[in-house]
Amino acid sequence: MGAGAAGVAGRTYPPVNFQIEPARVAAFARAIGADPSEGVPPTFAAVYSLGATAPQLFGDPQAAIDFARLLHAEQEFTWARHPRPDEAVTSRGRVASDVSRRGMRFVTFETDTADARGQPLCRSKALFVIRS
Amino acid sequence: MSRREVTFTKEQIAAYAEASGDHNPIHLDDDFARTVGLPGVIAHGMLQMGLMATVATEAAGGPDKLRRLYCRFAGMVVPGDRVMFSAEPLTAGKLDLKAVNQKGEAVLTKAVAEHD
Fold first, then answer.
1. Which residue ranges make up each domain of chain B?
2. pTM (predicted TM-score)
3. Tens-digit pLDDT profile for chain A (132 aa)?
4. Interface contacts (A, B; CB < 8 Å)
5. Is-contact A16 A52, C-beta < 8 A?
6. Which end of chain A is more exposed for a tag (fewer CB within 10 A), N or C?
7. Which residue in A24, A43, A68 is closest to B36 by CB distance?
8. ipTM of the complex
9. Domains within chain A, CATH numbers bracketed
10. In CATH, what is the architecture of B2-115?
């Protein structure tokens, strides 16, 4: 973001559909040393929620995120319910806040993921810091 | 207290990149990582959080019990680093989480979980 440019707080992105594929869940579970028979690991939300929507932010010319200077500084997930393998979920991302201070830009990106009935599953809240 | 020690490897980081879909070259390509000022490839913050979650899940009594997970990514983790992840009950339904490397540095801070 250039000097003096306005942030993109409040910006929302179109919903993204994601299928919770059992093979992908199992590979993810193995990668973090979880038991694949225990279902969807909670932080698979990094894929079906944050991972499904963050590319919209990173690819948004108006948001102008300098990916090479981006740090993932904080992450929170809250779950109303954990999805099951083979569920279809829908995630919606939005920029909750975007502030620049002391040469750093702080972007809070929130994603709400719901099930096929529209019932909430997960909210992801990521803080990205972009060094200038 | 639930705990788990993990020695990070390039293979594990690559497996996480593949499974998560996060193919940022700072996690996969030493030469690229050096061009952006890193010592070489670093582990995904989300891999660290995922490992932390397995410990929190065990302490909570199963993955379905977890309601909230939060952390700050405070320190870099590189292949060869040994990190101890631990979860300790704080109050009812709340876990204090720690991730400390072989030098005694916290790599995740302010980490907490809430569970049913």
1. 2-115
2. 0.95
3. 444 445 899 999 999 999 999 999 999 999 999 999 999 999 999 999 999 999 999 999 999 999 888 999 999 999 999 999 999 999 999 999 999 999 999 999 999 999 999 999 999 999 999 987
4. 97
5. yes
6. C
7. A68
8. 0.96
9. 16-131 (3.10.129.10)
10. Roll (3.10)
